[in-house]
Write a structure and sequence with these properties.
single chain, alpha/beta, Aminopeptidase, six-stranded mixed beta sheet, two-stranded antiparallel sheet, about 35% helix, protease, thiol protease, Peptidase_C15-like_sf
Amino acid sequence: MGSEGPPAVTIHATGFKKFHGVSENPTETIVSNLSEYLKKKGPPKGLILGSCSILETAGQGALVPLYQTLQSAVSGKDSESSNSGRVILLHFGVNSGATRFAIEHQAVNEATFRCPDEMGWKPQKIPIIPADGGISRTRETSLPVQEITKALAKMGYEVMTSDDAGRFVCNYVYYHSLRFAEQNGIKSLFVHVPLFMTIDEETQMQFAASLLEVLASLY
């Protein structure tokens, strides 16, 4: 009998490209450099970093690469039966007005874009997934956001729990991801980060690595 402990958690990460008003999206840098950063730092125990994808900052325009990421997360899970269920979809988005990190608890089935997305789409008060019902429907992550936030705050990060991921592309992607996660027995989490001029790149990379460590230990 092996005493290998629980199987590793596989985390698939996404960030976003630049968009209106944000010429350099920190999440593109964070997610693009995450694998290399973890190699240098030494990856957290019990963690496998799966795909790292950068999405267009567009509602419908993000869906094809998003669902490719989601499907690959599930097909990977099926092929490694020992990893069954221990998969997290981790999405990073920027909140340019924020002064700290925010762990998002839920997404709302409403697309009301304050400005057109990068493909020119500007929906107003429409359900993201009509089959889910009206625009007041919410989906919540099954990960323990309060515990995650507390653990990161203990490490010295400026971090909070949030119940409002907005109504723009971040919320749009999170809602699709939460629905997919629930249907496929995996987990999903969205994290908002500030601009690099508010919290510098090195601190944000450290935060991302610490977040992976916390997720691996709590799941």
